[in-house]
Design brief:
There is one protein chain. The chain has helices at about 90-95, 270-275, and strands at about 40, 45, 50, 60, 65-75, 80, 100-105, 110, 115-120, 120-125, 135, 145-150, 155-160, 175-180, 185-195, 200, 205, 210, 225, 230, 245, 260, 280-285, 295-300, 305-310, 315-320, 340-345, 360, 370-380. The chain is mainly β. The protein has 2 domains: about 30-205, Beta-galactosidase, Chain A, domain 5 (Distorted Sandwich); about 215-350, Distorted Sandwich (Beta-galactosidase, Chain A, domain 5), CATH 2.70.98.10. Strands 12-13-14-15-29-25-24-19-22 form a 9-stranded antiparallel sheet, with no helix packed on it. The longest helix has 6 residues, at about 90-95. It starts with about 35 loop residues before the first strand and ends with a strand. About 50% of the residues are buried.
């Protein structure tokens, strides 16, 4: 979704890494792990971690923002393709504000005017996007160093401790994100969080997918399916009104799969004009059933498919509308507008201020739990 970036201001300290592994140490996606090694403030160590399954699928993750850096999956010809956007070194993740592959928290998406009320106390959060609080504020969890524990070749658990007052959110919160690469080529993402004060939590993954494996081009040739009968419409500041609008008969109806390009620039539609493309929350008809497909993305070029499963009530679909050719990613590729599709499973935007929507309140003694599965396959 649209990003207005402020200086992340987290006082990262430079620490050069002198080791240069041989070509044999490169990941399948061509990343050099040495380019991800860095010590930042409080002696926090940043590294690149690699997950592999029995099919040769590889997922690379950095503990800076608990981000997915690369995903290598086979296409219809058996060739391995990297299907997410990102950078090939930690310096760019630190210095070029982005949400590529990131774990978003404390609150994914927008909070209206950055205001929440908890137990009759109004709290002012940062206003870093059109007057609203976006993705936890300018120094959200995507810019934090997580503690990483790789359990085995297929699983890594990353932990962040967010102190009371972090971006003015209440409560000392400990959050975990666990990535498991399964042998059926799925990335199973589980989120957990606990707090010592009443607070709000809404976590997601912000990977930018291009299943063509060629992010120098557009991803709008992809076919998309969404199990949804309505969206939560937005105004021209991307803020929801509290309404739900039916998708039937509109460009937002993906219950029958269709190519994204068919309507992504249909600016005669006010919602697409406001979003500058698709940048909206769909209300899922799966109703939290993790066993039902919530979304499916297909590349006609590679045949690679991505199915999304979640226990969340909504999914934000963002079509890279604000990529503008100024960011250079992996392999020196410049990311142009609409080079990717984001599928962010979540509670609805501004839920803290919409009492009739599912609650995002987390209280002491409770454990926040959310799950998202990205499952890859092939259609020939």
């Amino acid at each position: 979704m649209k990003k207005t970036f402020l200086s992340i201001g987290i006082a990262l300290l430079l620490c050069g890494c002198t080791s240069t592994p041989s070509q044999n140490n490169l990941t399948l996606s061509g990343l050099n792990p040495a380019n991800f090694e860095k010590v930042i403030e409080n002696n926090q160590v940043l590294k690149l971690y690699t997950l592999k399954n029995t099919n040769g699928v590889e997922v690379c993750i950095t503990n800076f923002g608990a981000r997915i850096v690369s995903i290598m999956v086979p296409d219809k010809n058996g060739e391995m393709q990297d299907v997410v956007l990102g950078f090939d070194n930690i310096e760019d993740y630190i210095n070029v504000p982005s949400d590529f592959g990131a774990t978003i928290g404390r609150y994914a998406n927008r909070i209206g005017q950055g205001k929440i009320t908890i137990d009759a106390k109004e709290i002012q959060l940062p206003q870093n996007n059109y007057g609203h609080c976006l993705h936890g504020g300018p120094t959200g969890w995507q810019y934090k160093a997580f503690e990483a524990k790789q359990m085995d070749d297929k699983t890594i658990k990353l932990t962040v401790v967010s102190p009371d007052g972090d971006n003015n959110f209440p409560g000392n919160v400990t959050a975990h994100v666990t990535y498991t690469l399964t042998d059926d080529n799925a990335i199973d993402i589980k989120y957990e969080a606990t707090t010592d004060q009443k607070t709000i939590i809404n976590m997601t993954n912000h990977s930018y997918f291009n299943l063509d494996g060629n992010p120098s081009g557009s991803a709008m040739n992809h076919t998309l399916y969404l199990a949804s009968d309505s969206i939560t419409p937005v105004d021209d500041t991307f803020m929801t009104s509290g309404e739900m609008c039916a998708v039937a008969g509109t460009p937002f109806d993906f219950n029958t799969p269709k190519t994204i390009s068919q309507d992504v620039t249909n600016f005669d539609n006010e919602q697409i004009k406001f979003g500058k493309g698709f940048d909206h929350n769909w209300v899922l008809s799966t109703k939290g059933n993790i066993n039902q497909v919530a979304a499916k993305l297909v590349s006609p070029v590679t045949g690679i498919t991505l199915e999304v499963y979640t226990n969340e009530p909504g999914i934000q679909v963002y079509t890279g509308n604000f990529l503008d050719g100024t960011v250079k990613g992996k392999k020196g590729i410049t990311y142009q507008q609409r080079a990717s599709v984001c599928l962010e499973t979540q509670h609805y935007p501004d839920s803290p201020n919409k009492a009739h929507w599912p609650s995002v309140i987390l209280e002491p003694g409770q454990t926040y739990q959310s799950q998202c599965i990205f499952k890859f396959g092939i259609e020939k």
